[in-house]
Amino acid sequence: MRIVSRLSSATFLLCMLLIFPLHHSAQNTAAAGYHDYAGLSSALKGLAQQHSQIVQLKSIGKTGEGRDIWMLQISGTKGPDPLSKQALLIVGNAEGDHVIGSEVALGIASYLAKNYGQDEEVTKTLDTRTIYIAPRLNPDGAELFFAKTLYEYAGNLNPRDDDYDWKVDEDGPEDLNGDGLITLMRVKDKAGDWFADDKDPRLMKKKTADTPPDQLFKIYPEGTDNDGDELYNEDGPGGFDINRNFPHNFGYRFRGTKVYPASELETRALIDFMTRYIPEFKTQPHRNICGVLLFSKYDNLAAGTGIAGGTPTFPQPPSGAAAGGGGQMRRMFRMGGGRGQQEAPRTPPRDPQPKNTE
Prior knowledge:
It is a single chain. It is built from 7 helices and 10 strands. The chain has 358 residues and is an alpha+beta fold. The strands form 2 sheets. It has a 6-stranded mixed beta sheet. Helix 2 packs across helix 4. The two termini are 12 Å apart.
């Protein structure tokens, strides 16, 4: 869980009011089982119908497979209208395999709706604030979590050429042993990096300098080399990690064609919801959002070092440049229309956004 935008003290307090009473509600929701797309849609529609005075449900866009991206608006009946109140946006399940995020978001929505008018803090919060909740930003990817054969997949299902062979999604995993799970498999290979543990051969250990080559294995995701390129499952279904598809710090090494910031329908749907100008309102109706609470494993907004995001690409000075002397790069420019010149060191641009947000 990360707060990915700087919050005012009032909004931060609002986050705390949401988080602390969350525990009981979220546990009850998750205990009943995770919701697939149909189940989640039904639960959200039921919540909006039962609490229609304070809860509105709408689709902010469609996925590549035609599923709705649901957004809840929850706001009390007193005080300013919902679009005039300071708002918090809550987003869950941006990664397809992080369905717990949608359960937590749904738990928050249920708690707020059911306790408005019953709990003093909840009532005060909703009468002075608006809460937007997108429980499942990546419904296509999440649906794989409920498929007959289960495997963890974070991206959406937008077909993509991941291995640059002008084909899409042609080499995905297969359940070779029929256990209903996509796991890992090992293949004997003298060029491998792993060997089986002596006490429990099901366990694999990293090779050492004295490991005999005939005991080495390579490890692959479960499946076959469908396209005969001696790689296994390198171009499966989809897709792109929605949480890595936002413009900020989109400077990492990506795989696949047609990849650019906000390239995905789900990403653009959320950005449009937050920023799009709507003529009938003569404004950006959701400019009242002043904070974002993201239930996620990681993202390219609050990314630190060590994951594939959070490293912006900016031009750097040549490695041979030195401070002072003839090796220093200098910039020449005209002054006042004459041929005067001034020397100035060439410095790299700075990222205007902080890498660590609070």
